[in-house]
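Supplementary Data S3. Sequence and structure tokens for construct A.
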Amino acid sequence: QVQLVESGGGLVQPGGSLRLSCVASGFTFRNYAMSWGRQTPGKGLESIAMIDSDGLNTNYGNAVKGRFTISRDNSKNTLYLQMNDLNREDTAVYYCARGNQRGPGTQVTVSS
């Protein structure tokens, strides 16, 4: 079955950076567009970045555009999210997703 496992979250100071990874299994990763989303108690689930199956086309939500970069390595079945210039509003549980299927998530906390 489809499995998505995120890693790379943690505590970071405002202005800092983190790189999230998501290892996929149970399906042919290179055939699917993928996305990253995040969830906070106050805002609910927010889709923040998408990438097509080849990695040639990406889209970002306005809240992260210019600061986050989504990428993928189809040879490693892995999706990435490089997050720069983090601020407190980025604090959330981050998920990778294939359509409506998502992993358990990884917590990102931005705090001084």
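Construct B, processed identically:
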Amino acid sequence: EVQLVESGGGFVQPGGSLRLSCVAEGGTFDDYAMAWVRQSPGKGLQWVSAISFNGGDQYYAESMKGRFTISRDNAKNTVYLQMNSLKPEDTAVYYCNGMQSWGQGTQVTVSS
């Protein structure tokens, strides 16, 4: 059974940065593409970013391009999401998704 464990969320002012991490426990991490998905208060799930199994390809939702960077370290079974120039509308619970599993989510709050 695969478990995905996110960390790195928190409270940040507009314009600030956070780096989210997601560690995969179990399974063969480097066989799978991974993604980040978020859910803002009162809204549905929104796809944020994805990365191919070897990290060679990255994909972003339009509103995240230029601000967010996804990466992975297969030796550490970890995928990251570096978030810069954060905006209040980035406030959400961020979920790691992949390996047919979901993490528990980590809260990101952007507010002055």
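The chain has a mean pLDDT of 97. Residues 38 and 94 are 4 Å apart (CA to CA).
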